[in-house]
Amino acid sequence: MKVAYVISSDNARTILRDMVIPQLEAGNHGAEVVGMFFVFDNTFLLMNETDIGDRLQKLHEETGMILLACDQCAIERQIENILVPGAAIGCFPVLYGALGSVDLDQVITF
User: Fold this and answer.
1) How far is CA 67 from CA 14, 61, 96, 106, in A?
2) Which residues are bridge partners to 6 per DSSP?
3) How far apart are the first and last CA of the chain?
4) 1 and 102 Cβ atoms separated by less than 8 Å
5) Which tens digits make up the pLDDT trace of 70-93?
6) For the chain, percent helix, then strand, then coil, each to nearest 5?
């Protein structure tokens, strides 16, 4: 099953750090994650030279997983130029275009 995540909750850091990323790194997540879209303060999770950002960058390099930060969210937080190299910024139309080329089964928000 191919899934994409919309990362929007206040608990996203914990969910990524303690559950999703370790499962992806170990290869036992149970689904192929083809993309993650980060909104609001969760865009900070894509900052370069941070633990979560660097781990997501490595997963991006290994799998091609899409990492997308909401453009307005990143710009408002003045971090649009310090995201991990594999992250792009954009809005929902960019997300739709990026995910349109994969055989996506489900979008999950957390």
Assistant:
1) 18, 11, 13, 16
2) 37, 109
3) 18
4) no
5) 999 999 999 999 999 999 999 999
6) 45, 25, 30
